[in-house]
Amino acid sequence: MKINSPPKILFLSTFPPTQCGIATYTQDTISAITDVFGENLACEICDISDNTDVNHNVHFTINPTLKSDYTKIGREINGDNTIKLVHIQHEFGLFGGTYGNYLLGFLDVLKKPVTFTFHSVIPTPDKKLMAFVKLLISYSNSVIVMTKKSKKILVDDYDINENSIACIPHGTHNVNYENTQNAKRKFNLENRTVLSTFGLLSSGKSIETALKALPEIINHTPNVLYLILGKTHPNTLVNNKDDYRDSLELLVKELKLKNHVSFINRYLEIDELLDYLKATDIYLFTSKDANQAVSGTFAYAMSCACPIVATAIPHTNEVLSINEGILVPIEDSEQMAKETIKILHNNTLRESMALSAFEKTRASSWNNVAIKQIDIYKKSIDESLKTTFNYPPIKLNHLKNMTTALGIIQFSKISEPDINSGYTLDDNARALITMCMHYNVFKKSSNLLFIDTYLSFIERCQTEYGTFINYVDEHNQTHIKNDYVNLEDSNARAIWALGTVVSLKEHLPKTFVTRAKLSLLRSIPWMSNILSPRAIGFVIKGLYLYNSADKDNNAISIIKKLSKNLISNYDVNAIRSWNWFENYLTYANSVLPEAILYSYLVTGKDSYKRVAIESFDFLLSKMFINGHFKVISNQGWYKKDSIPSKFGEQPIDVSYTIQTLSLFYKTFEDPMYKTMMQTAFDWFLGKNHLNQIMYNPITGGCYDGLEKTNVNLNQGAESTICYLMGRIIMEQQKTVSSIKLFQQKKATMKASFRLSNK
Length: 758
Known about the structure:
Number of strands: 22
Keywords: Transferase
InterPro entries: 6-hairpin_glycosidase_sf, Glyco_trans_1
GO molecular function: glycosyltransferase activity
Organism: Winogradskyella pacifica
Pfam family, one: Glycos_transf_1
């Protein structure tokens, strides 16, 4: 049987092992697209290189100095029907001929849609340059630039239609936020104040600007060490002589800076580079190119939470605000020294700049750039380019990092646990459920320690009356908040968690199951009296799971009583246009129809089935609009007969919706529910109004909220746990689908075998 190849995007660019900014940019772009969409979209390379050695990472090669290569390779690309679009990384120096006009031979024969990324946009062009750029763009379906300034130049100076230009920022790597002092330990630099600059060295970098500023900086901060990271740009070397680096080393000697400057003279792999940047107190950006449209080095430094002192070029002018750093005139060493000292003198300012730089660049992570570029491709390709998100690996790193011997900490500052926020029953109950789910799927014995920790926390919170406290401070003391906050929902979540443990009695150690059952049974006296609809929902979930493993008439009796209360709420509030249990939609809404469906599964009452479907259909109609998933805003609950608030979306409601959709799909096998599960989970992966991923690919942590213009980058326990719940459900769904597909194929083969024997 012939297997259809996935559609491909071909990148025309330099590529590693070529060591230049565009090659690295292209490699990072391809890696990101592969990470996000690689299961159904492939990337290929047409390398711009005169290197005759075979590069096994590329499929086509054009020698930039051979004019005939351009037409030859263009025709070869036309012959590959799987290539749907050619994305050209454009820099004038990459291609042969005047202004690189050999490229026109390639474009003349190419019969594929074309997208350009312009890495340089030269302002105030002469007539020849202007005509050439307009001719280039006439071959394309779209043009990508990396700054608003570049877009403005194309519109104003080149008369390019602005609707054909997309502004997508230079990508940055996902970086786990790390305290600078901790990062310095990797390099034994704890006792140094670290300044740094990185990139392929050339005279345009103007490193001497920083070196001349150093003596004054050292007078203020004697322990300064300036790291010059990176090898010399190959185009700068003449007859293997490195005149520029030699001049810098001579300047270091003249200024007596030997103990304060370190040259790391090699090409750094990305992980090592990012570690150096995370260990940097201030990044010095010294370019003297007044027309430099974009700098990857500058973007990477910001993404690693570096406060920055930068010379004013178009990219830094546009991106760097006073919140992240300070701009200085080009080649002005005196001003660079003054502003660096200003930041070093004020720890509070330096820390706030670092955090602001880190937050600003999250939107430009390579994953987010990949999502934006795919949207551009879809507009350029005639046929529909169907792409689905890859499901990222399930990582428990952040969940475990948030967990101490007592339990899981409530909040984090970015990705660093905030022990001062203490612990809650809510989070530890959800963590227990999540770790049980993970253990049930993957059977990793290392999970058992965490299951024990979270179960112990629930036991610690249970009172002599069978109820639970919710808040415990960092010293394991009962918090005063327990005395004046309604704890019904928290208590009910504990029942859900305990029921989950009991339901897995065939898989978990017997001691865990026994402890959970005893704790749940101590809670029986108060369960029937709860009033909060969501608390009722959580208790019904917990008792259903408990009863699925240990048949208990008392549990069934409580489920029936609580279900009647929910049904009464529904009867009072539901009207034709508002099939709901209350006059508003708030948080964890889906747990209500889910609880009624569990009640139907226990009692078999058709009226419960009807209400479960009616109410859930109503809720879904408010969350799935024109095929897009939208969480009920927490900035003003959705009240009957009112216009819903926008924005303020939290992971917890996405997770609860996925859980309920999963139960409805298992119960009724309606494929609509399965499709909606995938759409809802895609919210985490970037299918949201900001087109930004909502999880940290490095640690598996999840961001706390999606706001109007930004993502809340704190990765607290609740959001991380809820993301993992949803991810594990999708993993289970993928496994079930694979099993069903195998069974269908097996049945088909058996049927064919029977027919062949007749």
